[in-house]
From TrEMBL:
Catalytic activity from the UniProt record: a phosphate monoester + H2O = an alcohol + phosphate
The keyword Ribonucleoprotein is assigned to this record: no
Protein's UniProt keywords contain Acetylation: no
The protein, known as: Purple acid phosphatase
Keywords from the named record: Glycoprotein, Hydrolase, Signal, Zinc
Record InterPro entries: Calcineurin-like_PHP (IPR004843), Metallo-depent_PP-like (IPR029052), MPP_PAP (IPR041792), PAPs-like (IPR039331), PAPs_C (IPR025733), PAPs_N (IPR015914), Purple_acid_Pase-like_N (IPR008963)
GO molecular function: acid phosphatase activity; metal ion binding
Enzyme class: hydrolase
Organism: Juglans regia (English walnut)
Pfam family for this entry, one: Metallophos_C
All copies of domain Purple acid phosphatase C-terminal, residue ranges: 359-417
Domain Calcineurin-like phosphoesterase: 150-344
Family to which the UniProt record says this protein belongs: Belongs to the metallophosphoesterase superfamily. Purple acid phosphatase family.
Length: 441
């Protein structure tokens, strides 16, 4: 039954997909090496009896400094209620939230998408929780610490292949506090059931630690005439805490965690100086207090610095950089994490195309494991500002030790234990007297 419906959906989706190819083929025309690994499709099968009220695709995200949003999907209509507490199966608290669903073109209707914000919660504490009434599935998560040290896992262009699975297994062993994802999640590419499959694939990790994401080109899913609204599935399924930072859009927002101010930007929304996104960013940066958050980290999908031959000359990279790089520089942003290019690359501190001790370190970490494969051709000779580049799948860990020091490591998947292939100690710009500027708080 489910298979018949999936097949019908697939055939109905194939037409708009081909149609979309006509429009977007030119934009994303980079030819990657052939795909060697299988695409994973994770079916809905929890336990022996299939209960349509059973929670699936559970993931959590931080809201404010001490609350958590619990998101999950059910096939049937159930109350959006989360029970939680600090000891197993004894849930002393509960909270209600909202339920929504969306349609994609005329063929697809999503399951019931539930969002419940719980808290206030204690920092660095293990919580037990359950989604919906009478659900047999119990979950746990750990809240992030309120102070340094804190460890972030960073991975972009994740997808859902055997490469992805390998990356996730390595991340699971890293003892991270929070995952940061600079865009391109499911690679559903208009075929909505792949969003559900992705939700199931990441659930073991995303239900245990907050996953904070921003979106890439594979989240746009806009098809002229057939489905003209962009980001429909992304916004419905991956709701982020944008209101808390004064943003008017789920596509860009910021938050503080343990002394780090994290800013999520949108490559595929207006970014010129008259845009809402630009004005919001300017206001957000004006409110950063470096005594509270000595570190500033920015995530955006399309890289502003890139010496791979893939994705050169795209407007989301070049024009967004031209518009916003000055703001990031003046705010003394420490690191910019990007994706889009399916490889790893780390730059020196840089501003306006040149090495600059007060500029951010730009890191491309688009090597999560998507089905398009790796981008392995580079500009030759290597420009001076590019310090380390390699086309291998993997993930990064950003461990902020204290107000002045952080350790960045890139972990390649090739080895059974995630191999450290690149590592560097960073000093926060707020602690560098040579980078103080007027107006800094
Ligand atoms: C959640 O909603 C149910 C049903 O309306 C209600 O009985 C319960 O008290 C609510 N719980 C909270 C914490 O508001
Ligand atoms: C911060 O961490 C670095 C690296 O571990 C260490 O060398 C430094 O002394 C620490 N600073 C403070 C103020 O503890
Ligand atoms: Fe991308």
């Amino acid at each position: 039954m489910g298979h018949v419906r999936d097949l019908r959906l697939f055939l109905l989706s194939a037409l708009p997909l081909a149609f979309a190819g006509l429009f977007f083929g030119g934009v994303y025309s980079y030819n990657r090496p052939p795909v060697l690994r299988k695409i994973l499709s994770v079916p809905h099968s929890y336990g022996d009896d299939h209960n349509p009220a059973s929670p699936q695709q559970v993931h959590i995200s931080l809201v404010g400094e001490d609350k958590m949003r619990i998101s999950w999907i059910t096939e049937s209509s159930t109350p959006a209620t989360v029970e939680y507490g600090t000891s197993p199966t004894k849930y002393e608290s509960s909270a209600n939230g909202t339920t929504s669903s969306y349609r994609y073109s005329i063929v697809y209707k999503s399951g019931e998408i539930h969002d419940v914000v719980i808290g206030p919660l204690k920092p660095n504490t293990l919580y037990y929780y359950r989604c919906g009434p009478a659900s047999g599935r119990d979950f746990t998560f750990k809240t992030p610490p309120a102070q340094f040290p804190i460890k972030f896992a960073v991975v972009g262009d994740l997808g859902q292949t055997e490469w992805t699975d390998s990356t996730l297994q390595h991340i699971a062993k890293s003892n991270y506090d929070m995952l940061l994802l600079p865009g391109d999640l499911a690679y559903a590419d208009f075929y909505q059931p792949f969003w559900d499959s992705f939700g199931r694939l990441v659930e073991p990790l995303a239900s245990q630690r907050p996953w904070m994401v921003t979106q890439g080109n594979h989240e746009v899913e806009k098809i002229p005439v057939i489905h003209s609204k962009p980001f429909t599935a992304y916004n419905a399924r991956w709701r982020m805490p944008f209101e808390q930072s004064g943003s008017d859009s789920n596509l860009y927002y910021s938050f503080n965690v343990a002394g780090v101010h994290i800013i999520m930007l949108s490559s595929y929304t207006d970014f010129d100086p008259s845009s809402q996104q630009y004005k919001w960013l300017e206001a957000d940066m004006g409110q950063i207090d470096r005594k509270i958050t000595p570190w500033i980290v920015v995530l955006v999908h399309a890289p502003w610095y890139n010496t791979n031959t893939a994705h050169q000359g795209e407007k989301e990279s070049d024009e967004m950089k031209a518009s916003m790089e000055g703001l990031l520089y003046q705010a003394r942003v420490d690191v910019v994490f990007t994706g889009h290019v399916h490889a790893y690359e780390r730059f020196t501190r840089v501003y306006n195309g040149k090495a600059d001790n007060c500029g951010p370190v730009h890191i491309t970490i688009g090597d999560g494991g998507n089905r398009e494969g790796l981008a392995s051709k580079y500009e030759d000779p290597t420009p001076d500002i590019s310090i380390f580049r390699e086309a291998s799948f993997g993930h990064g860990q950003f461990e902020v030790v204290n107000a002045t020091h952080a350790l960045w490591t890139w972990h390649r998947n090739d080895d059974s234990s995630a191999f450290v292939s690149d590592s560097i100690w960073l000093r926060s710009l707020s602690s560098d007297p040579a980078c103080q500027y007027r107006g800094q708080r």
